[in-house]
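Dear Dr. H.,

I hope your travels went smoothly. While you were away I took the liberty of generating a structure for the chain from your last submission, since the lab meeting agenda had it listed for discussion. I wanted you to have the full record in hand beforehand rather than looking at slides cold. The sequence, exactly as received, is reproduced here:
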Amino acid sequence: MFHSPLILVEAADVFYGVSRNRFQAVFGANLAVMPRETFGLVGGSGSGKSTLLRVLAGLSPNWQGRIMIGGMNLEPGRSPPRAFHRRVQMVFQDPYASLNPRHTIDRIIADGLKLHGFTDLDRRIAAVLDQVGLGTRFRYRFPHELSGGQRQRVAIARAIALEPEVLLLDEPTSALDASVQAEILNLLAVIRQERSVTSVFVSHDLAVIAHVCDRLAVMQRGRIVEQLSADDLIMRKAGHPYTRELITASGESAAQ
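The corresponding predicted structure, in token form, is as follows:
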């Protein structure tokens, strides 16, 4: 059966600054992410992958081109409507910076639910905390009372509580210890199985991308230089020299 892309990006350019200080961070990006697919964006620091993700999240208005998510067209220079942010949620790299330190976990999750008109908050908060492996004993704690991995679970809980169609993940495990990284990746795999969610996963780690993604795009200096399947990545079937360079560097890192 033919399916249309849930996320469509055509000839997207992304900028920082204005006038003579304007800097172009992404050049002519083209992507098509299918429903329930997990799509990876990989590349080195400054490649533009997180910048492009922020545009998809509606957090960066300085772009041009065409972007459509779930049948909704984003408009350059304008923030998307509130309904968009219920359907598209983002999990950031640093869980401590993304959680209000003055709010309990209960309020952190409840605020988003209230904003988007959800009811039965008590049941929803308890259920989502259970799903991310925390349980209600963490409900009235503050972020500083949790470990890094637990805080990232809260950030994931806050995102999925809104039952989004699209989950955007910006290096969600890179600030965590290796053993905790594995736990979070396993949690995301479970969420993917249990919920009809389409994901875009940004990482500089090819092993992580190969583990969680169906397909991926490789970015270098603001440009998508290659798209390939996770199987092709694992089998080292890369066509672009930069992708082959990343694969070699990843193999050398794993061997150390």
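Two observations you may find useful: The chain has a mean pLDDT of 92. The radius of gyration is 18 Å.

With kind regards,
E. W.
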